[in-house]
Amino acid sequence: MALIKCHECGSNVSSEAASCPKCGATPRLPDPPNWKARIIFALASIALLVGYVQYSDWSEKRARKRAEVDEFMRREHLTSEQRVAEDNAKKAAEIEAKKMADEKARQEKNYSIVAGGESVCEGAIKAMLRDPATAQITTDHWSIESEQEGIYWLTSIVRARNGFNGMTIGSWQCKFRHKDGKSEALDLKPLQS
Which pLDDT does position 117 carry in this prediction? Predict the structure, then answer.
């Protein structure tokens, strides 16, 4: 039961009352929702959305086809020397892109190798220190001894407490093998500062 305004006098009337207690007018109940109109609106919206998607797809295909035809017509107006030069430039660009992709893949592989080497070398270096908990180890540089055998060198700068409770800085060189995704330390030696 809800209160509604009387359309005649404006006083509050129960929605279940037969007439207004003040003026006697029969209350007008709000119109029930028009479900047919809502369903038609929803279906029309869906139809418009589907039409838009279809048109966008068709428009995209048409634009691609148009670009192919324009490219074909452009190449038809070139001399054979210009076509050859253009083809060579395109091949050179593809070769350069492949080189760049290969270099990126090589760098990512080397990064994972160096990360594995850093981990095992850091453990080996800490095992040699008096106070390994204070060690701060940063990689200075790395090099490849034998890529076929997976042997690499890693030079690290180490800052740690010595036996007299003072901080020392030194360089360590670690030789490690990386094989089948795993790294193991082979040799470790401090470098002279």
Answer: 87
